[in-house]
User: Fold these one by one.
Assistant:
Number 1:
Amino acid sequence: MSNPFYNHSSGVPATQTRGTSLSLRAELDLIGAGFDAVAASTIIQDQWVLYGPTSTYINATSFSVVGDQTSTFQVGRRIKTVNTGGTVYSTITASVYSAATTVTLAHDSGSLDTGLASVRYGLLSVLNPAIPTIPVAYGGTGATATTGTGNNVLSNSPTLVTPALGTPSALVATNATGTASGLTAGNVTTNANLTGDVTSVGNATTLTNAPVIAKVLTGYTSGAGTVAATDSILQAIQKLNGNDALRETSTNKNASGGYAGLTLFKLNLRNAADTITSWFTTAATVARTWTMPDKDGTVAMTSDITGTNSGTNTGDNAANTTYASDYRAANFVAGTNYVAPGGALGTPSSGVATNLTGTSAGLTAGNVTTNANLTGPVTSTGNATAIANGAITNAMLANAAVANLSGTNTGDQTTVSGNSGSTNALKSATTTVDVVSATAPTTGQVLTATDSTHATWQTPSAGGGGVGSSLYLNATQGGF
């Protein structure tokens, strides 16, 4: 609208003439006409400001605009949108710029839709608003700042939904209800009229035995264990009952499959027929340990052992009563490395005589394996012996008075030295003669028969002699 007091938009009056009544009147007429025009016109100012650029629908509670518009779309500012579903009034809860400004709304009712046609924001800014703080006395809130969200509390009896009261300097909770799960009470004055299982007078409560022992043990299960200081009453009773179930009852005393009882500290033992009770006792005056052998058997009394028992018994013949005095009896079991003092062993079925010593005058050996290392005049391999050539010396034949020659000479003496012209063979293979000589023969002597049964050592005469009457022994050979 053009200025009614000027004839064009430059603001310069239409008539520049000054100083005349005509020009002054003209100005006054123009001013009058301007007031008339203002009075005739209608000025309408809306509380919502239309946001001209395009607004893009995102979802039922948000839209976006181009550029950083967070200063316009401030958190807490009111918004009016026109949608296909109608007009929706909302409050901005978030305004974030990133490539575009995204505005999030909390609607009074309704929601945005894809038919978003226009967006208007409230005329008044949330930051530094033009509206002054109105005191409570004049109908205002009197608040210059806020904490949190929601309505101001002006009522004498407001209803607070989930407030955090901080640390009040004083608070009377007479009518408070609900459960304070994190409250630690200081001095508590209880109702003096408590009734039921627990009664009270002031803060002094009383709990009698009757209601406690009458309670049902819900969840009770018997189970053995050691009662601990941290156990509940229910847990302790469960363990005690379970332990009691494991205890031997008196009916099992001295019973088969039960346990042996004690009578005046004597161990009770029942016989197999379960008709007689016997006892084990001890006369020990100091602590003793008795170890039973790991085998079945019958314990004998000392009175069961007969005969004379002296010395130290290191064997296991603890029950030999029939042959107590005859340690050579057939059923006597000697200990290891037993040394028998003498006696006849009978005819053993077997035996190893590796370590036998002494002289067995009456032993007739069967198959004897000799030492394979015999040395001297006689050598051996196994049972086969041999006499080497020249092993028989004159000294061995020194006792000629008792030396008998018999049998046939089958050795290698085929040549008789010093008897040339005679037959070189010894024929008398079966003749037995006694050699008679008071002294040992000398080199060159020959054994000469003096009759059919005797012979002597003689020095042969020149020309030799008959082979049939003498046996030549070459002294240089040392034997035959």
Number 2:
Amino acid sequence: MFAVLGRLKTSLSAAVDQRLRREHDLPLATFDAMKTIGRSADGCHSDDLAQSLAVSPHEADLIIDALVAAGRAFRKPRPGASGAGPVALTLSGALVLERAGQTVERVLHAHLDPMLSPSDQRLLEESLRALRPRRASHTTNGVAEARGASVP
């Protein structure tokens, strides 16, 4: 089963990445980062982005810097606080994300609709979400605990 899931992920990722690059000049990895940032109404901190994307905090900062340089995101000010503030999408970034999200849905439907009914697709998504490992956080005493928050 591992090989089947791996091949499916690779195939779908390649198809989505190719279409996002062609239609929006947007790699899939950047789309994923923008999607994570766009989910947070108050802005997304680089540590949260790193955890969501399973990258190092340094890599998350590089992703944020690239999005800011491209005009797709901005850092929110933190009055009276030092360090980088949370990042949010610009209006143009939010529009790109919305259009790119529609493209992703079209690609997925083109690949899945011939094989799975809408109810089977919902069941597959629910099953995959249930199987996804919960994120771990560290308490003040250093013991990792599972977060109870649902994973989008």
Number 3:
Amino acid sequence: MSNKAAASPAGDIHWAIAMPNTLAGLEKGMTGLAAWLERQGTGPEAVNRASLVFEEIVTNVIRYGFSDDRAHLIHAVAELGGDVLILHFDDDGKAFDPTTGPEHAPANSLAEASIGGRGLMLIRKAARRMKYERTKEGRNRLMIALSRQ
């Protein structure tokens, strides 16, 4: 599992990880991302927002992205630019575009509320913009731009 922070020639600082499709891989990714964001001076609200989005996307890939029991790698990259934090995700799981699909209607009461299905709603609300691509090689590529503030 690779977990690294680097500076590109243009001076843009980024963080990258290739993690296995396991809960241990998710934990390593979340810990690495939060530590990197804090080293960059990112405030706690933005760190929490990025952590929520990261956890939701990677958890969904782990739970629903693969129809086999083989090991797969999920790649994630974070980059900072001005007041924006951009998260990139790349995996070889089943095609799934989180930018589309219906929103869950709010429940009238807690008793009527269903469990689950709210993660994508939270991501969509947190994101400044999202872009999904299914590559010709059969990979999911997702970009989510978040406020760094």
